[in-house]
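pinned: reference chain
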Amino acid sequence: MNRRQGLSLLLRLSISGAMLAVLIWRVPTINWSSVLPELTIGSGLWLLLAAVLTLTALVLSALRWQRVLDVLGLSAGLRRLVSHYLAGQFVSNVLPTTIGGDVLRVNRLSNDTGEAPSSFASVVLERLTGWLVLPIISVAGFLLNPALRHLGRATQVALALSFLTLTTLAVVLAAVASDRIGGRFGAREGWRRFAAALHLGLDRLRHQPGAAAHVLVVGFAYQLVLVLAAVAAARALGVQPAGFTALLAFFPAVAIAQVLPIGISGLGVREAAFVLFLTPLGVSAQDAIALGLLLYLLSLGVSFLGAPSFAAGSHRAPPAPVAPA
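pinned: its structure tokens
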């Protein structure tokens, strides 16, 4: 880590710490013994379900990645991709690094396939599908529960994040997919090769609607499982107002906010977002903060499953057999 990266990491750690400190200051009566659920048979089962759902979502995300690779003409086994994904989660959530898990995934898949630009494109496209799915799920939550549309600033911020995300995504995809812009990077060297691979991937998705639909279906399943994990975590804490439709509408907005590069692993941002979105439903600020921290701890616990894969390093895997067309 060079000096610039070190300063960036220190700044992000400071921002996360400051945001958490402000939240705690705004809730002076917070009872830290209530941040984690009281261990009973019922809460333990809800916690176990939340952990299983969190791990299931990760496997679904790796499956979505595999579907994108199929479109790009690359072959990789699901077990291998899950290993790479776990290692990436370990880097993103456990190690205080500015590199990030996605860079590790690109590097390890490149070692497997020998195709660095296409590996990069697969990770970017897999992420972009999530930015398409999240706003749609949020809007669906508001349509299913009309009462959520009248919560003032909470409703306004959630919908604004959704529409801003869709607009930004549309602009980026139009630019990269355009032959006039993205197509200019074909047959170039250096970083232009990666832009060309991304342009090619979008072009193939556009001309293979069945494959694109498959990617999106798995993407919806992934995000819905994460919503269910949040519902199970809320039940473990006894936060009853945070039901399925409420989290269907607001959890995607939390997910969008927490990936902003202003903290470490979304700490502080996620908890502040839950306070904003859930307190109008009657959830106390303490319970909203507790839900955010519990979801972080669940993600952190699952991330530790990637420690062996991260420690083992990257070894070239034998190519998976390709099914005949």
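why pinned: Confidence is low (pLDDT under 50) at residues 185-191, 317-325. Residues 60 and 221 are 7 Å apart (CA to CA).
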